[in-house]
Design a protein that fits this description.
Number of helices: 3
Strand content: under 5%
Structural class: mainly alpha
Distance between the termini: 44 Å
């Protein structure tokens, strides 16, 4: 268990951080039309889904 806490868990944390860093940095190289957030077209579907979850 000590091996996992000393070596494996910190390595997984560092790898997750590096993957997130690469993903965020990659947005700088995406063309401007792809860098924008996705549009939400059907707001009524979203509202019905949210109201369904609260029932």
């Amino acid at each position: 268990m000590a091996f996992f806490r000393q070596y494996v868990a910190p390595m997984l944390i560092v790898l997750m951080f590096l993957v997130a860093l690469v993903a965020v940095t990659a947005r700088a190289f995406i063309p401007s039309d792809l860098a924008a957030p996705a549009p939400i077209d059907d707001i009524s579907y979203l509202l019905s889904t949210v109201s369904f979850l609260h029932l």
